[in-house]
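Notebook p. 47: complex prediction with zinc ion.
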Amino acid sequence: MSVLFKGGTIVNATGRYVADVFADGDKIKAIGTDLDNPADEVVNAKGLYVLPGAIDPHTHLCMPFMGTYAQDDYETGTIAAACGGVTCVVDFDLQQKGETLLEAIERKKALAEGKVAVDYSLHPAVMDPRPEVIEEVKKACQDYGTPSFKIFMVYDFRVDDATMIKLLEQTKAHGGLVQVHAENVHVIDYMNAVLEKEGKLDPYYHAVSRPNLAEEEAIYRASKMVEMSGSRIYIVHLSSKEGLWIVKQARDRGIKIYAETCPQYLLLDEERYKEPDWNGAKYVMSPPLRTKESNEALWEGLRGGDLQVVATDHCPFDFNGKKDMNGKDDYKKIPNGAPGIETLLIMIHSEGVAKGRITLEKMVDVLSCGTARMFGLKDKGEIAVGKDADIVVFDPAQKFTVTQSKLHMNVDYTPYEGFEVTGMPKAVYARGKKVSQWNGSQMEFVGEIGRGRFIKREPFQPF
Ligand code: URP
Ligand code: ZN
Ligand code: ZN
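Predicted complex, structure tokens below:
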């Protein structure tokens, strides 16, 4: 299968220019003006952007969590990804008690086998840090193709600080990257007890129970362990102005600390928890939504390069049936998480680029090029000869009103219901094959389930 994209504006992190792109099989084979390679399909891309497919490095597909499961499996989750212009996902793989990291990887790969519509990889999450598991980091970095490791400073399955230091040392030695969910569990436990005593159990108090300083303190502590070990770290779903400030200060002192934020922390704020009819439960996620001041600080963090990646933390639970399963009378029992895999590109383009908050090149950097570099996806993230033909033909003028019924995620709501976006994919290609297209009113999936592959990633290269 070959495709010739004619006359589009190619956008990479480094700039944009008008040219033709020829893809043959999985790869981009040529870029130039007036290419006339014979092709099975010719796409008129005049007036459209030719973007590298977005990469979502923070998803929780079919993950057991808080007594239930995140609802998208590899099939529904990657169909939704394809429809949103996401052509690669890196999914979290939570190690179970007694498992090795390799066993955890094989277990999740078996779930994905034959189901994925776009390429994927895995980040093992270390939850049972036995000495032999810590030793396995070397193989995970160098043989299994999974050189990034998630740890949690919160939840029952959190690791202690000593384990964090050991993992930092191992990843430094073997080309890995620790990714951390940074919140101070003791602050949260204390706040939960106080709020419980006062009978404050509505969804709004989820935010109150997890103040900005809980994130700030945990990032500070993590940064000190990085300093001590001389390693590096990646903060997942950074949400607060204060947390970002710690990241900036540490980077200014030469500490290798990287960070991602998510569309929800850029676009939504804690007022959402006050929506009537218990609607606030839709936004119960950790860390919680913050204030508008934090939203603005995070946009500035993207512009200034202190945040390198935008990911979704896609972790969907139905509003009717899951969020209210046990949590109706107590925010602590509402499954934490929200959907977002399908709306990543359109929300960041519309609210970021179209509204002048970030440049188009910055968007491509934080959704594609920078993400590929961070996570060792060497064939992804760029429109360049030799890279995978993961391509989004994007119409920057197409309008769309975001609504759950026109999305493909396996969940009964979207946090962006009613947002009027400017800019939609016209067609999305994953390794040279069309996986979705705009049908005049919404995106439709036209790909092949099972064509996605597990991608072995390269060890981390500090930058
Ligand atoms: O609320 C969230 N973020 N749920 C998913 C698990 C996690 O902490 O990333
Ligand atoms: Zn987390
Ligand atoms: Zn997450």
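Notes: The two ends are 36 Å apart (CA to CA). The mean pLDDT is 98.
Next step: compare against the earlier run before touching the bench.
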